[in-house]
């Protein structure tokens, strides 16, 4: 079965996440008032805006790898995409909405889409 839709949704979600992560790293201190309104983490990680950006970049890179490999093992990589999508909502919050929704959709499709029977 072709897993092209999962691949495309995952790639778009991961790329949007990478852009958001680098945006947070580059402009974090200038937009700190905005960032602090949707950051759920407190302490050392949540206080440093650049750290949140790097966490976002790493998670997006991992989602990119999972998206590229979803055709080989859809259920395994789909679970990883869902976990990244949900977890990052709690790490960076609202900036992750577009990326998170796309990654969760791609992951759920990878997990639950059954292959068509071959005749």
UniProtKB/TrEMBL annotation:
Signal peptide, first to last residue: none
The protein's matches in Pfam families, at most eight in alphabetical order, are given as: DUF4064
Q: Does the keyword Transmembrane apply?
A: yes
Entry's transmembrane regions? 7-29, 49-70, 79-112
InterPro entries (UniProt xref):
DUF4064
Going by the UniProt record, its keywords in alphabetical order are: Membrane, Transmembrane, Transmembrane helix
Q: Does the keyword Transmembrane apply?
A: yes
Residue ranges of every copy of the DUF4064 domain listed in the record = 2-90
List the protein's name.
DUF4064 domain-containing protein
Q: Which organism is it from?
A: Listeria riparia FSL S10-1204
């Amino acid at each position: 079965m072709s897993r092209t839709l999962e691949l495309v949704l995952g790639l778009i979600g991961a790329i949007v996440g990478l852009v958001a992560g680098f945006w947070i790293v580059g402009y974090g201190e200038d937009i700190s008032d905005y960032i602090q309104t949707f950051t759920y983490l407190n302490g050392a990680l949540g206080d440093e805006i650049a750290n949140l950006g790097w966490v976002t970049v790493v998670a997006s890179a991992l989602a990119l790898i999972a998206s590229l490999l979803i055709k080989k093992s859809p259920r395994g990589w789909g679970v990883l995409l869902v976990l990244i999508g949900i977890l990052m909502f709690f790490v960076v919050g609202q900036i992750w909405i577009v990326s998170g929704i796309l990654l969760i959709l791609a992951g759920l499709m990878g997990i639950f889409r059954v292959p068509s029977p071959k005749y």
